[in-house]
Write a structure and sequence with these properties.
The complex is a heterodimer of chains A (about 170) and B (about 425).
Chain A lengths: L1 E8 L6 H4 L11 H4 L10 H5 L5 E4 L11 H9 L3 E4 L4 H10 L3 E3 L3 H4 L5 E5 L4 E4 L5 E3 L5 H9 L2 H8 L6
Parallel strand pairs in A: 1-2, 2-3, 3-4
Antiparallel strand pairs in A: 1-5, 5-6, 6-7
Chain B lengths: L2 H9 L10 E5 L2 E4 L3 H11 L10 E4 L9 H17 L3 E3 L6 H7 L8 E4 L13 E4 L2 H10 L1 E5 L3 E7 L8 H12 L8 E5 L1 H4 L3 H11 L6 E3 L4 H8 L19 E6 L6 E3 L7 E3 H4 L6 E5 H4 L2 H11 L9 E5 L3 H9 L2 H7 L2 E3 L20 E4 L15 E4 L2 H10 L7
Parallel strand pairs in B: 2-3, 2-5, 3-4, 5-6, 8-9, 8-11, 9-10, 14-15, 14-17, 15-16, 17-18
Antiparallel strand pairs in B: 1-7, 12-13
Helix pairs in contact in B: 2-5, 6-8, 12-14, 12-15
The chains are: A alpha/beta (about 170), B alpha/beta (about 425).
């Protein structure tokens, strides 16, 4: 699976309170409404400048802090097509996978990619290509089990298939 | 094998597991608070009619109690209905308190078991030798449907703690010190085991502080090996059988460290990250608008006791607001009986109901731009407790109580 998009860049330790403020946790069902509040309190410009299809590239420990799934949901429903980071905090990483939002660990990526670069990610082999220069960056390949969940579109479709429950 | 490896081997019906292996683990306890409403939505999406085991799911309310909005009231209402519909055996409505305290009090934290919770501070329950970790809502829906989930077997870190605390220095200061040393992602994806004589002497409440805050260095699980103190606590609370998992003598750790706490001073985590740790003496004199004693980290009886000791016959500084939030109804009642709450309220503290309160910025005591709060809670991220222009510092209950009197950050005495 190839994912292409424009890079929206962040630094280290972007925590889930920053991605999705606690005051909106009472939104539990409407995922499109969650998507209206991405990074709202600390980086309000994100909502104006980012576009659906963009790929977030971040530094270390992206998604640290609270287990709130809304932090991954809001990005997915905003239209972010993938998140690439030097490292992820573990619960955000799991949430993204389970929602079918591709997350790629790419050590050293912050120095190699700039804000607004156009990149293409090959999910199967973990190769990231910079479109303008053709330069190739090797990210960590996703374990097969995790790739399978993402390719199914997340844990729910994966489980439906596994448990043999028909789609509505 | 380490504690984490032993428990995951058992939960996945294997003789042995190795770090980095992904296993499907059977879950013993599955806990959700108000975000069970998010879980519910995904559970309905899966299309399973009944939960896998109505005796292993725990649902409770603590994040926004009493309901802060019509929307929250509707969430509570929907979940009460779901609890009845599925005959969920263990449901704790808003009167009981914070999940990470009441699970322990009601005997859900058992050594050797796998406990997952849709809350990052689920690591707290590792204080009982439980493999306890935070997960997201969608995967909790998977657990509700199937009773299992995928887990990567974590590498383990061993922390030996020796020596004896100086007066007013506590488990909170120790764990802040460790987080400052290791960093916010220093234990990411890993299992932390706390060993050593100083740990075996610690109360259950103090052990829970260590496991709770280990999340803030990224830990997946944080164990205190069960001992007589653990067994004495559990004896009164459960009749279920359990098998204690202790590490083998040849267990493999990726990192080992020894900390002598004899010279440790009171610590404070400065804005806007929990690993930005300094000695209280380095930051003393910083004016505070709000002081908060409570939360799943430090809202237990020993925390309120030390606060009461410091604030007895004293008055909170006129420019500082003091909030008190006991972690559970049971602690609230004990604090009433022992006179701690009377002392704290007489001193000028405002006592709130057991619950998460303003810790996560949902309601009750949020901060205005430019304001400073010194709290016993577990996170000081930008925008965490109200305005993104506010500043949150984290410290022990003793430090917060002493600072509330002076109106500025001060050493406990």
């Amino acid at each position: 699976m190839l994912i292409a998009g424009k890079v929206y860049k962040f630094g280290d330790n972007i925590n889930t309170d920053v991605i999705y403020p606690g005051k909106y946790l009472s939104i539990t069902a409407d995922r499109n409404e969650m998507a209206k509040h991405c990074f709202e309190a600390v980086y309000p410009e994100f909502m104006q400048k980012a576009k659906p299809g963009d790929i977030i590239v971040a530094g270390k420990n992206f998604g640290s802090g609270s287990s709130r799934e809304q932090a991954a949901t809001c990005l997915k429903y905003f239209g972010i097509s993938a998140v690439v980071a030097e490292t992820f905090a573990r619960i955000f990483y799991r949430n993204a996978i389970n929602l079918g939002l591709p997350v790629i660990i790419a050590p050293g990526i912050s120095k190699k990619i700039r804000h607004h670069d156009d990149i293409e990610i090959n999910l199967e082999n973990g190769i990231i290509k910079k479109m303008r220069s053709g330069e190739v960056i090797e990210a960590k390949k996703l374990p097969d089990f995790i790739l399978e969940i993402i390719l199914h579109g997340g844990l729910i479709p994966y489980l439906k298939k596994k448990l043999d429950i028909p789609y509505n | 094998m380490t504690i984490a490896e032993k428990i995951l081997a058992k939960a996945s019906a294997k003789k042995k597991v190795l770090p980095n292996e992904i296993v499907m683990a059977r879950v013993n306890v599955a806990m959700s608070h108000e975000n069970a409403d998010v879980v519910l939505r995904s559970f309905r999406d899966i299309g399973v009619k009944r939960v896998w085991d109505n005796e292993r799911i725990v649902i409770l309310f603590d994040h926004r109690i009493p309901a802060d909005s019509e929307r929250t009231a509707a969430t509570h209402q929907r979940l009460r209905k779901f609890v009845k519909e599925q005959r969920i055996k263990h449901f704790y409505d808003q009167k009981e308190g914070i999940c990470h305290q009441i699970l322990a009090e009601f005997g859900h934290d058992l050594p050797g078991e796998v406990l997952v919770g849709t809350d990052s501070h689920t690591t707290t329950h590792g204080a009982f030798g439980t493999f306890a970790t935070g997960i997201g809502a969608t995967e909790m829906a998977g657990v509700w449907a199937t009773g299992e989930l995928w887990l990567r077997v974590p590498e383990s870190i061993k922390i030996n703690v020796i020596g004896k605390f100086k007066p007013f220095v506590t488990a909170k200061d120790l764990i802040l010190y460790i987080i400052g040393k290791i960093g916010a992602e220093g234990a990411n994806y890993q299992s932390v085991e706390f060993h050593g004589k100083a740990i075996t002497k610690m109360s259950i409440a103090s052990r829970m502080v260590l496991s709770n805050l280990s999340m803030e260095m990224g830990a997946k699980v944080a164990f205190v090996p069960p001992d007589e103190i653990t067994m004495a606590y559990l004896k009164k609370r459960t009749e279920r059988d359990f098998q204690v998992a202790l590490p083998d003598k040849d267990a493999g750790y990726i990192k080992e460290m020894t900390i002598d706490i004899s010279d440790l001073d009171s610590q404070v985590a400065c804005p806007h990250s929990v690993d930005n740790v300094k000695k209280v003496s380095e930051i003393a004199g910083k004016k505070i608008d709000q002081a908060l004693i409570g939360s799943c980290t430090n809202g237990r009886l020993e925390d309120l006791a030390v606060a009461a000791k410091i604030l007895e016959h004293k008055t909170v500084h006129p420019d500082t607001r003091l909030l008190i939030i006991p972690a559970s109804r049971s602690i609230y009642l004990d604090a009433l009986k022992n006179g701690y709450l009377e002392i704290l309220v007489r001193a000028g503290g405002l006592d709130l109901n057991p619950g998460c309160g303003p810790c996560l910025g949902a309601h009750q005591g949020l901060l205005a731009p430019g304001e400073v709060c010194l709290a016993t809670t577990n996170r000081n991220f930008k925008g965490r407790m109200g305005s993104p222009e506010a500043f949150v510092y984290l410290a022990s209950p003793g430090t917060v109580a002493a600072s509330a009197i002076k109106g500025e950050i001060a050493e406990p005495c």
